[in-house]
Write a structure and sequence with these properties.
Helix content is about 40%, strand content about 20%. The chain is built from five helices and five strands. It has helices at about 10-20, 50-60, 75-80, 90-100, 105-120, and strands spanning about 25-30, 35-40, 40-45, 65-70, 125-130. It starts with 11 loop residues before the first helix and ends in a 6-residue tail after the last strand.
């Protein structure tokens, strides 16, 4: 047992930083979906319609088929805070006074939203911040 080999190859100091990469709130999101606009103070994401059937129906009724998503106030403010510099934790700290809820609840909702828009491919994670940077 005394000769146990360290699989992770971290020193004691580096091991603390190595754990940061598994802490989701330290991830720094960056917007990748660039086709969006502000409409009445809310973010509107625009999408191209590639389905030939939808395009044909749009042609038949003489209307351009469009597909878009309008965010609510909270999602809009989060979207605008995603700049490739702030971590998820920092965004949650900024959002917290706007909601008046408990910080843990705001963080939970924010993580769900970030995971959803990441799964859709609208953002990506640029890097992981270290705890000392926050």
């Amino acid at each position: 047992m005394a000769n146990k080999i360290n699989k992770h190859k971290f020193t004691d100091i580096d091991n603390r930083y190595g754990k940061d990469e598994y802490n989701f709130v330290l991830y720094v999101p960056e917007v990748t979906h660039n086709d969006w606009q502000m409409v009445d103070g809310k973010v509107l994401l625009n999408f191209k319609v590639n389905n030939p059937i939808t395009k044909f129906v749009g042609f038949m009724i003489k209307k351009e088929p469009n597909k878009d998503m309008l965010f609510d106030d909270m999602c809009t403010s989060v979207w605008l805070l995603i700049d490739g510099e702030r971590s998820i934790y920092e965004i949650a700290r900024i959002q917290n006074p706007k909601t008046g809820d408990e910080f843990k609840e705001d963080l939970r909702r924010l993580i769900e939203f970030i995971k959803y828009i990441s799964k859709q491919g609208w953002i990506r994670y640029k890097r992981v911040k270290k705890c000392e940077e926050i």
